[in-house]
Amino acid sequence: MLYFIGLGLADETDITVKGLQIVKRASRVYLEAYTSILLVDSQKLETFYGRSLLLADREMVESSSDEILANADKEDIAFLVVGDPFSATTHTDLLLRARALHIPHTTVPNASIISAIGGATGLQLYNFGQTVSMPFFTSNWKPTSFYDRIAENVRIGLHTLVLLDIKVKEPNFEALVRGRKGVWEPPRYMTVAECARQMLEVEEEEKKEGVYGRRSVAVGVARVGGGEAQKVVSGTLGDLTQADLGGPLQSLVLVGRRRHEMEKEVLREWADDGDEFERAWEEGKREGT
What we know:
Blueprint: E1 2-6, H1 17-25, E2 28-32, H2 42-49, E3 54-56, H3 58-63, H4 65-69, E4 77-81, H5 92-100, E5 105-108, H6 113-121, E6 132-134, H7 145-155, E7 160-164, E8 166-167, H8 173-177, E9 188-189, H9 192-207, E10 217-222, E11 231-236, H10 237-240, E12 250-254, H11 261-268, H12 274-287
């Protein structure tokens, strides 16, 4: 049996009892190590689980999945994923490969940023639309597909959760050109401030459709589920271009027009200027964001 097991958002204790029982008895335990991170390293997980973990990077999962699936029709194999295994579609390909090989499989769900964002911010999950991802821009690559999804949410007044890019175990291209493999770039984790700046760059310099602007109400979150390490900042999108929420992982919410007064009361506590936040909130109710 192949088990897709969610690990939750913060540390080694977030795994469910069911998930931990499977990890303890599995023949092999893989830790997916490229779509997200916990707030602790893999050694803490190994100590708490009482098991050694095999790190599964993107290359292994996407190109060498046979190694993961080997004997999974006869043994229990655990595949651990930060958050919930299928909140995104990244691991659906592995599931489909298992199905094609007639390998039985099941999922042990857990909390993800998609389910936890409501509790972290006070925004009602019923009022969220499509989730979008924000990649790191480069000098010659600035994708804008996220903008159209946000526009669709804005038109019907819904909040937009923006997931921020991470770069883990990315190859060093200069080394590749010289024929040296196994040389990696340092990990990079996008911040709320970087995301806000990129969003405004696309709106102000490329799209210019008025979907959102510097006065749009937005919320930045960091290390959701991490207890005292969790941080929330509310304000305008312009405010968030200067926000410092510390280390990863971070996410941003663009607040939609369909907003409730209780949401405002919760978010106001995390604004640097509560009165200015309320003015932006009322403007957004009238104008869309």
